[in-house]
Each structure stands twice: as C-alpha cells, then as structure tokens.
Amino acid sequence: MQNALVISQIMLWLVVVVLGVVCLAMVRQIGVLYERMMPVGALVVDKGPAVGAVAPAFDLRDLYQREVRIGGRAADGRSTFLFFVSPTCPVCKKLLALLPSLQANEGANYRFVLASDGQRAEHEAFYRKAGLSAFPYILSQELGMAYHIGRLPYAVVIDSDGTVRSKGLVNNREHLESLFVANELKVASIQEYVARRDEQQAQA
Questions:
Q1: How far apart are the C-alpha atoms of 18 and 26, rounded to whole Å?
Q2: Interatomic CA distance for residues 175 and 43, integer angstroms
Q3: Cα(164)–Cα(188) distance, rounded to whole angstroms?
C-alpha cells in the first residue's frame, strides 16, 4: 500500500515537471513570435505629396461655412490629421466612430479635419447622422486630387510647419494610431521604423 502511494507521488511530480517544461517552451516560442512579428501600420501608397514634402496649401470652408486651412504654418502649433472619407464607405463609418476618443487623447497636439467630395446634401445628412459637428468636414475635389486619393479611408498627418509627416490607407484603430506614432518618431511609417531598428540590430 505504501509503495503504491510513493509511486503515485513520484508520477504526479513527474507530470508537474513535464507540464512546467512544456509551459516554459510555449512561453519561449511566444516570445520568439512576438519578436518576429512586425507592427502593422497604415499602408503607405507612393502617390501624392511624399512624406517630408511641403503639403499643398488650401483655404477652404467646411459644411458649416467655417474657414479651414490645410497646409502652411498652423497658428495654434498643432498638426493636422486630414481624414478622407465617404458616406458610402462602411470602413469609414466604423473609423469615424473612433474620432471622439482619438480627439480626447490627441486633441492637444492634433486638429482633426474630414474631407471628401460629391453631392453636398448627401454629405450633410451623413455628417448630422454620424454626429460629427465637432470636426470640420470639407467637400473639395481639388484637395483629393492634390493627395491622389484613389482608395478610402485614407489619412494624412501634416505638422504645424506644413510638412507631410505620415500618410496611408487605414482600416482600423491601430492604423490610425500608427500615423501619430510615425509622426512622433519622425519616420515615414511604422514599417520604416522597424526596418531601421532591424538594420541597427544587425550591425550591432
């Protein structure tokens, strides 16, 4: 009887040790995968004003006839987050719902401006229904052409000096936030930052 208890205790301890080894191996593999995975940022499209170039300057009016200047030196010292959207774009609608929280987090450093083109009545209805009155909404075909907007949703960050700092197609909150991070890190995109980091690590 006592021998059976001893044997069962030994077997239990062996199971515990095996489980511990398995857990450690899994943790190590998760760490390796985490290191290998590249942070995904907004998809940079090589069209329109390049990152680092002076942004085209526009003096426009939004749907409420408020004056909105895009490009040039910002009087309030904030960067401009220019967000191209459409009432018929389902992804745009999903991302527009995030704007209030983004403004709460980034409003001290960024001015959010929405842009599109098309029939005014359709956009006014969309603007009211989405509750976007806190954000200037511009209708300008020339603005979209200046940035070569072909697909939506698309965002551009212009710094307070009027320079394009980051841009790209955005499909989720992480893509939006990657443009803020790229601006703060002074890189064109998160992908560029990761490539630089990997190059530095390889040279070290």
A1: 12
A2: 8
A3: 9
Domain 58-195 sits in CATH 3.40.1210.10: no
Domain range list for the chain: 1-37, 58-195
Tens-digit pLDDT string for the chain (204 aa): 566 666 767 777 777 777 777 777 676 665 443 343 344 667 677 688 999 999 999 999 999 999 999 999 998 999 999 999 999 999 999 999 999 999 999 999 999 999 999 999 999 999 999 999 999 999 999 999 999 998 999 999 999 999 999 999 999 999 999 999 999 888 877 777 666 676 777 776
Beta-carbon contacts of residue 46 (< 8 Å; ≥ 6 apart): none
* Integer Cα distance of 72 and 85 in angstroms: 22
Q: Distance between terminal CA atoms of the chain?
A: 62
